[in-house]
Specification:
Elements lengths: L3 E4 L3 H8 L2 H16 L8 E3 L7 E7 L2 E10 L3 E9 L7 H51 L8
Length: 151
């Protein structure tokens, strides 16, 4: 079992690149745990109470505590939203609100992508049917000894 981890937009990447090398290594260590363990200990992943599917990945590196907001899409796909250095005991509400907004935005974008994909697939199927119909018409015309004239 291996989960796939992706980030949405640039917020997580901006956060990650701002970290020192040793902190980045610790983040990667925790990501490996999230990728490979079926049951992830709360020490590394915790559901944010009062939300519908928002989680925080918890990273401790020396005296530093980092939190990375994420959620699961389609079971084995982890979407990273944003991260921050924790300075207080409780996760700040503004950080949670921002993550929830990003999560909502992700689902809106995914919905639009699926709609466009469906339209393209339907159009391609319709176009393919037209090509088949035209090919059949041409065969009938040629079968009857007529010369097809396409305009």
């Amino acid at each position: 079992m291996k989960r796939k981890i992706q980030f949405y937009k640039h917020y997580f990447l901006d956060f990650y690149l701002s970290l020192e090398d040793k902190d980045q290594e610790k983040v990667e260590y925790v990501f490996d745990i999230v990728r490979h363990l079926q049951l992830i200990p709360k020490k590394f992943l915790k559901h944010i109470e009062g939300t519908d599917g928002l989680f925080e990945i918890r990273v401790s590196s020396g005296q530093n505590e980092f939190r990375i907001f994420c959620f699961f899409d389609s079971g084995m796909l982890v979407i990273l939203l944003d991260g921050f250095k924790k300075k207080t005991q409780k996760t700040p509400g503004k950080e949670i609100d921002r993550a929830l907004k990003l999560m909502k935005d992700y689902y809106i974008c995914e919905s639009r992508v699926k709609q466009v994909y469906t339209l393209i697939r339907n159009y391609c199927s319709f176009s393919h049917l037209l090509q088949l119909a035209l090919a059949n018409c041409l065969r009938l015309v040629q079968f009857n000894g007529l010369q097809p004239h396409l305009v």
